């Protein structure tokens, strides 16, 4: 990123175990895929620099464990999320049925204005499909959230899904904030608007050029 600053956006991966959350993050971040299943313990973290409409953004990807035993731990992370990728597996009906419960947890614990993408993953497994595209889309429409079917295996829709979520967040939070004249102007400082802290986030380049901060 050189010397430019970046907006920080916190995204949480949630959904049942084995639906492919970690695989989606690895495909997006490193363009790799493994058929080996290593279940996530607690919460993993990665960050990825992207440019959305010319604006540098640091996507903080919090990859939570889907296993029930980690639920109270992982739900503690919901409160500071800007966005969620709520994932199910199109070849696993219970993972789709459980979307309602995940959505309830998000509504209970996450900021009311957070953005959500519903993601039906493993769409390469069309022969094993038990959840239709229409069912996923209809549920997403009922919740008023964006919908994608993706495949971490082939890479289909992975980048576009993360980009769509980041773009929505940019429009809603960052652009609105800047249009309101709220651009902070110094590095390392922060200010608060609408109960949301706007941080200034120099990138690892560490140069002196600053740009306004982020929603966190
Ligand atoms: N065919 C296919 N397999 C996938 C896809 N995404 C993930 N998998 C496989 O599904 C299994 C589980 O993937 P993970 O990404 O570890 O699942 P997870 O949701 O992170 O699971 P937890 O960490 O337990 O919550 C692995 O064996 C992956 O290789 C996909 O798009 N297509
Ligand atoms: Mg995982």
From TrEMBL:
Question: Which Gene Ontology terms cover its molecular function?
Answer: GTP binding; GTPase activity
Listed A to Z, the keywords are: GTP-binding, Nucleotide-binding
* Record region (Disordered): 180-216
**Which domain of life does the UniProt lineage start with?**
Eukaryota
Look up keyword GTP-binding and say if it applies: yes
**Could you tell me what this protein is called?**
Ras-related protein Rab-8A
């Amino acid at each position: 990123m050189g010397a430019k600053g970046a907006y920080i956006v916190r995204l949480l991966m949630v959904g049942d175990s084995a639906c492919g959350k970690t695989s989606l993050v690895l495909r997006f971040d490193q363009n790799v895929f493994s058929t080996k299943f290593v279940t996530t313990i607690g919460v993993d973290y990665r960050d990825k620099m992207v440019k959305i409409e010319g604006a540098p953004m640091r996507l903080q990807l919090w990859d939570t464990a889907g296993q029930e035993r980690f639920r109270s731990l992982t739900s503690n992370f919901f409160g500071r999320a800007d966005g969620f990728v709520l994932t199910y597996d199109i070849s696993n009906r219970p993972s789709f049925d459980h979307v309602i419960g995940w959505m309830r947890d998000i509504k209970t614990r996450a900021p009311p204005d957070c953005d959500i993408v519903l993601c039906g993953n493993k769409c390469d497994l069309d022969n094993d499909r038990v959840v239709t595209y229409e069912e996923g889309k209809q549920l997403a429409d009922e919740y008023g959230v964006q919908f994608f079917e993706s495949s971490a295996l082939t890479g289909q829709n992975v980048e576009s899904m993360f980009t769509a979520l980041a773009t929505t967040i940019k429009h809603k939070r960052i652009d609105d904030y800047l249009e309101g004249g709220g651009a902070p102007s110094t590095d390392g400082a922060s200010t608060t608007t609408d109960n949301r802290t706007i941080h200034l986030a120099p990138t690892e380049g560490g140069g002196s050029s600053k740009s306004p901060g982020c929603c966190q």
